[in-house]
Specification:
This protein has 642 residues and is α/β, with parallel strands linked by helices. It has 15 helices and 28 strands.
Length: 642
Amino acid sequence: MSHHDHKTLVRYDVSLLTQDDVFLFNEGSHFRLYDKLGSQPMERDGEKGVYFAVWAPNAEHVAVMGSFNDWHKESHPLAPRENSGIWEGFVPGLEPGVAYKYHIRSRYNGYEVDKTDPFAFYTELSPQTASVAWDLAYDWQDGGWMDTRGEANALSAPIAIYEMHMGSWMHASDEHRSLNYRELAPKLSEYILKMGFTHVEFLPIMEHPFYGSWGYQCLGYFAPTSRFGPPQDFMYLVDYLHRNGIGVILDWVPSHFPTDEHGLGYFDGTHLFEHQDQRKGFHPDWKSYIFNYGRNEVQSYLISSALFWFDKYHIDGFRVDAVASMLYLDYSRKAGEWIPNEHGGRENLEAIDFLRRFNAAVHENYPEILTIAEESTDWPQVSRPTYVGGLGFDMKWDMGWMHDTLAYMSQDPIHRSYHHNKLTFRMIYAFHENYVLPLSHDEVVHGKGSLIGKMPGDDWRKFANLRLLFGYMYAQPAKKLIFMGGEIGQWREWAHDHALDWHLLDNPLNKGLQRWIEDLNQFYRRTPAMHRKDFSHEGFQWIDCNDVQQSTLSLMRFGDKPEDDLIVICNFTPVPRPNYRVGVSFEGFWEECLNSDATEYGGGNQGSLGRVEASPVPAHGRPFSINVVLPPLGIVIFRKME
């Protein structure tokens, strides 16, 4: 085939890239690359086709191959764009829906490889790995939500997140298969509305080759997985949730990527996206590659991925996975397996800079969205603005609380008095960051058992303990997150190939637990003291955190006005406490708003008959006190009556 013939197959006079685009990309500050690189269906001079552009600076030859040319590796070569490292070309006659890959021949050691497009909007159904050219046009109907979502995402708003894995929440009733995006939309919206959660958080939906990674081994940073339908169907799901007033948070994984040959690794015969030095570029735990955060083009790539989901999919926030593994050069590494930074320290300065730029860029463009860090160490100021030296996240998961509280709750109540500080320790650091309390997927996999399975005692006590755990979580100052299945008392460990055991709701104890979560969420949302001051000392005070012998705790939560005040009392033993005295600041009647031992939740109905009157008996340093019935393994919440 002569060079002249190429001209008819590929046109090189068509480009979406301006000189500015190229400059900003190479400089590391082009954050909307998805409009320029990858495959862009377009029309030029009355000729429809697809414009292709791919970054492969160390290639000597790049061609696009696909269903349109019988996967021929040479017939449609792209041309290098000056010395930008980008190869481009316009192929006339192609329509959206065409499958393609890039054939790359490196200028080093004769390495040749067929690669998926790093900017693909859509990919073939796994286990096929080709990219699919696609038009992302969609007629959004969620204007009402988008105009006001800043209120739903405010740090003073009630935020109760339902964390879920798309493929295993519910299966189609007649067949063993996951619901697709469109089937999920009405069912999930109805359930979230019924349960009273404010946001849904999806385990990574970005395209990933290995389903068993739950999406955490991601290769398609611009493509929702095709396992559940095309991109517009995922848009439909987000749109549907938004029209029902439900926020959508996505898990985003910039910490590492899998080594599959068709993916980002060793892209042009060199370590392009990943760090070249194995001590910085290979993850010992996950056997995956680590991005080279110091490389300008990689920063442009990843921050473009972040903005893309807000821009094209209207999402409301990111939970950023495994931030600790990015911050520390010695993460999961022994001495000699890591390289100190230029100051001799263990901090990954390039990753820190990247996280700050990511947070600054998304908040500048979308000030009303949330970024949430999963960061398991006590790195300072994770959820503080970049201009005061923080990483710039809005919130961070309180992993310490999760581990301490589950360790405490799994103890037999006889031994709990020896572990009392596991419940109270959190308040020493509770306001150093803006925290989310997670009871996440990480705690119900890999042999850790289910939440209900961790609770001690017979079935009745297990459920009472779990209701108490959820109640205590909601009483703590912080936002809330519960992984699917926890709210129905799922017995078996979560497995990504199986739907939740919805039939358990035929059992009164499981049904009662679900009803308890429903009522907790509704109370949390309508009660200012439960959420307004989650991130301030002013929203919380212990009444008595030292009743170690009886394993009880009492605390106050404050809203904006004195009449908002709540009193919360927890009993972590199966012994009812009929005359339990708690100091209060006001006389008059106090109403029992919530009681986890109520019959409708599966409890034994011990309590204070709806209300108690404060008497002028001083207690806990306060002038008045109430005398309450504290149910076994129960939590009760009181509010001052008008």
